[in-house]
Specification:
By secondary structure, the chain is of the alpha+beta class. The chain contains 12 helices and 4 strands. A 4-stranded antiparallel β-sheet has the order 1-2-4-3, sandwiched between helices.
Length: about 290
């Protein structure tokens, strides 16, 4: 594997500098303890413009090894990943997933699959019925396993200086995506991931997040009276950050309302329960 040590993103000097970039506030006191792993994770930013440069040999395998090193419920490992490098196939996936050009542009597309079909094969091989396979919790568990694996892979890929962006739009037309990827019954592409070197002509920046005290609760959930004011202030940060990237100056709250205020804004994902059952998931509750 090629030795890739130079990040494709501008470096920030410390954990505290990354805190400032992420939250727009002074870092806590005492200073955050330095950690190369935490620093890499805090430097994440989504990339939607990629260089055509191919990935170094072995990076895909290293990323999948990192994915398989993630925690998995009861060691069921109820996920798979489909690596798509063929240009024409990436173009077809791009069309199915909201006509997003970066999917075709990036040299690698990973489809992260909640996969109960392999567990079904185990039962069939042992001539054993698996009623638990159809329980809703089993499906939820497989989705969690898939997400944990994908995030481990994302962290590994970014450590090699690559950029990634998650693609939820593979769920817009899950059955068509399953056909394109040749997925068996009881297998769902939960998310996609475009991977490649960021195009330096289209730089991206660290996106603001909610203040940490809004999401961090100690000992028990605390419905803080300050949260509406915190969100209002965060909305202004998001507007400013988007404007600095020449994007429409829309706030976080406006994005939430646009996304959830109309089921049609889910672009087909509102029909996911019906699609799941058509794809072999029963989602029984008892």
């Amino acid at each position: 594997m090629s030795d890739v040590t130079v990040s494709s993103f501008p470096a920030l000097s410390s954990m505290n500098a990354l805190w400032q970039a992420r939250y727009g506030t002074r870092p806590p006191t005492p200073p955050l303890p330095e950690s190369p792993v935490a620093r890499s994770l805090m430097a994440h930013r989504s990339v939607r413009a990629f260089s055509p440069t191919a990935l170094p040999e072995g990076v895909l395998e290293a990323a999948v090894a990192a994915a398989q090193s993630a925690s998995t419920a009861c060691n069921m490992q109820a996920w798979s990943v489909v690596a798509v490098q063929d240009e024409q196939k990436r173009a077809r996936i791009a069309e199915l997933a909201g006509e997003q050009a970066f999917i075709a542009q990036a040299p690698l597309f990973l489809a992260w699959v909640a996969d109960l079909s392999r567990l079904e094969q185990v039962g069939r091989a042992q001539d054993c019925a698996l009623p638990g396979l159809d329980m809703l919790d089993t499906f939820v568990t497989s989705v969690i396993d898939t997400a944990l694996a994908a995030q481990n892979a994302a962290a590994a890929l970014e450590s090699y200086g690559l950029g990634i962006v998650y693609v939820g739009a593979v769920r817009n037309q899950p059955e068509a995506i399953a056909t394109e990827l040749g997925l068996p019954p009881r297998a769902l592409a939960v998310c996609g991931m475009s991977v490649g070197y960021p195009d330096r002509n289209h730089p991206t920046s660290i996106r603001p997040r909610l203040p940490q005290h809004v999401v961090l609760h100690r000992e028990r959930y605390d419905a803080q009276p300050s949260v509406p004011a915190d969100i209002a202030a965060y909305d202004e940060r998001v507007r400013a950050a988007r404007a600095s990237q020449d994007q429409p100056a829309r706030s976080w709250s406006e994005s939430v309302l646009a996304r959830l205020g109309n089921a049609a804004a889910l672009h087909g994902r509102e029909h996911l329960p019906q699609a799941l059952r058509a794809m072999g998931f029963r989602l029984d509750q008892a």
